[in-house]
Structure formats: C-alpha cells, structure tokens
Amino acid sequence: MELQPVKLNRRAAVTALTEMSGFIADISQKLRTTIVLIEHDISVVMNLSDHVVVLDYGRKIADGSPDEVKADPEVISAYLGAVH
Fold this sequence. Notes:
Elements: H1 14-31, H2 42-48, E1 52-56, E2 59-64, H3 66-70, H4 73-79
C-alpha cells in the first residue's frame, strides 16, 4: 500500500488551533496512522504527541516522550525559557 500524505497548513489563530488539534487527533485515531507534525506551539505538540523529536537550528536535540523531552536541559534552554 502506498502512503498518501495529507498536508495541512494553518494560520495561528486560537480557534483554528483548537479545531486543528482536534482534527489531527481524530485523523490519527480513525486512520490508525502516524502523524508528522511540524508545529511551533509547544503546548499543541505536547498535547497531541506520543513521541516528540525536537530540532534546534536543524540539529536534533531531543527525542522521546513529551515528558522526557520537556525535561531535557537542551530543550528547556532552546525553547522553554532559558536565555538562548
């Protein structure tokens, strides 16, 4: 079976974000498939994902569960509040 990608593009609006998050979760469950999500809103990523890979300037700095990733010192430094 050949995989057919579904490409979604959303503008950063709170209602669109809520709707898009629900849509992505529904697709993942109904189709029983993996979703590759490229998103800059950390809360969206952490709420939707079972597994997270974090890039910083194109370099992988973390790979694991949402809890593992948000506790990673490099992720904290790059994205969650430390001076970068």
